[in-house]
Amino acid sequence: MEKGSGTACFKINTKMGEITNVTEYQAIAKQKLPKMTYDYYASGAEDEWTLQENREAFSRILFRPRILIDVSKIDMATTVLGFKISMPIMIAPSAFQKMAHPDGEYATARAASAAGTIMTLSSWATSSVEEVASTGPGIRFFQLYVYKDRKVVEQLVRRAEKAGFKAIALTVDTPRLGRREADIKNRFVLPPYLTLKNFEGLELGKMDQASDSGLASYVAGQIDRTLSWKDVKWLQTITTLPILVKGVITAEDSRLAVENGAAGIIVSNHGARQLDYVPATISALEEVVKAARGQLPVFLDGGVRRGTDVFKALALGAAGVFIGRPVVFSLAAAGEAGVRNVLQMLRDEFELTMALSGCTSLADITRNHVITEADKLGVMPSRL
Amino acid sequence: MPEPRLLSSAGFTNQEKMGEITNVMEYQAIAKQKLPKMVYDYYASGAEDEWTLNENREAFSKILFRPRILIDVSKIDMTTTVLGFKISMPIMIAPTAMQKMATPEGEYATARAASAAGTIMTLSSWATSSVEEVASTGPGIRFFQLYVYKDRNVVEQLVRRAERAGFKAIALTVDTPRLGRREADIKNRFVLPPYLTLKNFEGLDLGKMDKSNDSGLASYVAGQIDRTLSWKDVKWLQSITSMPILVKGVITAEDARLAVHSGAAGIIVSNHGARQLDYVPATISALEEVVTAAQGRIPVYLDGGVRRGTDVFKALALGAAGVFIGRPVVFALAAEGEAGVRNVLRMLREEFELTMALGGCTSLADITRSHIFTEGDRLGRPLPRL
Predict the structure, then answer these.
(1) Residues B265/B288, Cβ–Cβ less than 8 Å
(2) In chain A, what is the greatest distance between 2 CA atoms, to the nearest angstrom?
(3) What is the dihedral sign for C-alpha B294, B297, B298, B304?
């Protein structure tokens, strides 16, 4: 938990009106959700070092605000893969949202559209691409795991296209599932009344429909460990949807993503749920951005809880950020209204951060507006 | 004979008399006990995660001394001159709003304590006593802290009143185009208690600012801060007053240079008591960059987290011409009114004098960069020694 009275204090009967920051939803979710469900969402892998670090690393990046600049008009609109959105804060894919709240992905979709931003739907959603599309207009991306059965993958991609989804976020950090020890101890299974809706109606071939929780674990076991760059090429042959490579954290893989025609990169460590002891995404970001040399946009997820976090990511070169856990925690706490509130709070905080830093548009946010630890150690970019 | 007790800065008892307070920080816990939660939280809070609030203190503890020994320190002179005004020590009072919330006498008590200590008091624009009332306490060197409002007529009237009341300089707050997010105040739904008012706005031709109730006025006034404020407004201010203008809230080299170019009389390195943008550096961490960029052309002061004489010394060693103290004043007011503020100024004076003596410095000019070392120094950036 972070230092400071604001984020650590809450009361059991806190009403939404009294919630003053995104992190407060986590404690409410913990109270409301069954342990197995909360632990599934909250956990990281093994020692959870990276889980903590994803937050801590932001607190080591400081600001260099510029004063006496007219900040009466702040414009935080931006364009992602050609799609105009109201702010560079988007929704990351997180699985099984109906475990958090009966409205699940419907609520998230509505909140994202109301906020004028992008929602990424998880392959392991408890609502299908069609159901999410049925909530009304909105820009949506589809997160994809590549399964051993490529026909299943092809069907998923077709359905996403037909449902009007605009891009694929290909998860590349999960050839095998990371060791989330709480899930192991809890023997996590998807509650029996829920199902992975994107697999309903598919010709599953070898994936036979056992029980729902059985399907979930079967699906997890079907992730293709052979996944490699040639599969990115294959994916490009079966769809014209732009492909974001989600889970790149090195300069080498950043170059390969560019060379392989990816439409973008999401610097991600899968919410610290895969390989423990990877750097925080905010720490890895600059290396990936530099290696991409401006040839594709680089986004970030992992640990974004404050408007100040969003600003820091943009200052270090991210074109936008995605938020994961705050969505499921606010769903659990307050359904669609909770997710709307999270997006509103991040928008308001980010806008204020821009104003207090002297930035009136995203283009005004530069590397000189932040100081990293590397800067302090004397590798100083020129300031004047 | 009472048993000796270990007194930490956190320890205090309900029966603590002024004689038993041994450092400035002890007033905070007393104030917390005495004040209603909403009032204490208003004074004590920082923005959002309060990282900078904590850091403003922590950063001082990472700066260490290189004391020189076997120097005659029998006579210590800590007097100095600020904007041409002689004061007894380089420790001044920062503007803090609404001091009558802390104690009935409010700004009167602070003014008297400052004058008695021979130092400068800065009056907040959002004071619960007017410039005239503060001036009426008797002679003293006073600065006026200014927010620039959308209605420039209001600003002009405020400046005129401050001039007529004998105030000597303007401290222009530049880090607040919008109010920072102090989450305690949001949760508490902070309002100015109804029996108090922002006295500098009484009697003004407020135009669009109408006088609803007092707490309404306070929130209205906060909403009237002009977000368009920029360097050209410094020029405008210079055209309506000949009082020197200190730019309060500069923390970068670039803005230090702009301050010099704009004709500002000085800079106060400040992060508004960590109440504006969270995750800015501690002011003591930002100080050296600003001092270096100012190139000695204008004085650079500091506020934020000063609680010890050792803190004052460190700021001067890093190039500050003086420091301002904020929260210690309101906490001391809450604890003991004027006597508390007098005590805070006395304790800081005595600690600073002792620090000078133990550091081998007999005047402020003796305090040099070589008397301290920072983390930057330890990481191998060479420090001139001889």
Answers:
(1) no
(2) 65
(3) positive
Q: What is the token pair recorded at B299?
A: 């004085």
Is B272 an active-site residue? yes
pLDDT tens for each residue of B302-341 = 999 999 999 999 999 999 999 999 999 999 999 999 999 9
DSSP string of A122-147, one letter each residue: PTT-SS-HHHHHTT-S--EEEEEPPB
Q: Which two tokens stand for residue A14?
A: 């806190």
Query: Which residue in B has a C-alpha nearest to residue A19's C-alpha?
Result: B187
* Cα–Cα distance for residue pair B144/B171, rounded to 1 Å: 6
Assess A382–B contact: CB distance below 8 Å, yes or no. no
Instruction: Please identify among residues 45-84 of chain A the ones whose CB lies closer than 8 Å to any CB of chain B.
Output: 59, 61-72
Which pair of tokens denotes residue A91?
């929704």
| Chain B residues inside the 8 Å CB shell of A371 | 281
Q: Which of B54, B175, B226 sits opposite A3 (nearest CB)?
A: B54
Q: Residue A203 has what pLDDT?
A: 67
| Active-site position among B100, B112, B272, B308 | B272
CA contacts within 13 A on the Cβ side of A358: 22
For residue B225, the 8-state DSSP code is B
Taking only the tens place, the pLDDT of each residue in A2-20 is: 444 433 334 433 444 589 9
Q: Nearest Cα to A79, choosing from A110, A121, A113, A116?
A: A116
Contacts of residues B155-160 at CB distance under 8 Å and 24 or more positions apart, as own/partner, are B155/B237, B156/B240, B157/B204, B157/B205, B158/B125, B158/B200, B158/B204, B159/B237, B159/B240, B159/B241, B159/B243
- Dihedral angle sign, alpha carbons of residues B55, B57, B62, B66: positive
- Rounded to whole angstroms, how far apart are CA atoms A160 and A122? 11
Q: Distance (Å) from the C-alpha of residue B50 to the closest C-alpha of chain A?
A: 5
Q: Is A184 exposed, middle or buried (0-12, 13-18, 19+ CB in 10 A)?
A: exposed
| Distance between A62 CA and the closest CA of chain B, angstroms | 5
Q: Which residues in chain A have Cβ-Cβ distances shorter than 8 Å to B382?
A: none
Query: Which pLDDT score is estimated for A174?
Result: 94
Considering the entire predicted model, what is its pTM? Answer: 0.92
Q: Of B178, B183, B280, which has the smallest distance from its Cβ to A65's Cβ?
A: B280
Q: What percent of chain A has pLDDT over 90?
A: 85
Inter-chain CB proximity A6 and B230 less than 8 Å:
no
Q: Which of B175, B178, B253 has the CB atom closest to A67's CB atom?
A: B175
The alpha-carbon gap from A371 to the nearest alpha carbon of chain B, in Å, equals 9
Burial class (CB in 10 A: 0-12, 13-18, 19+), A220: middle
**What ipTM score was computed for the predicted complex, to two decimals?**
0.91
Q: How many CB pairs under 8 A join A and B?
A: 117
3-state secondary structure (DSSP) of residue A121:
strand
> Partners of B245 in the beta sheet?
B170
Mutating which of A62, A71, A308, A349 best tests the B interface, going by the most B Cβ atoms within 10 A?
A62
* B74 contact partners, CB below 8 Å, separation of at least 6: none
Chain A residues within 8 A of B257 when measuring between CB atoms: 384
Q: Chain A partners of B180 at a C-beta cutoff of 8 Å?
A: 352, 356
CA A177 to chain centre: 17
Chain B residues whose CB is inside 8 A of the A5 CB are: 45, 50, 183-184
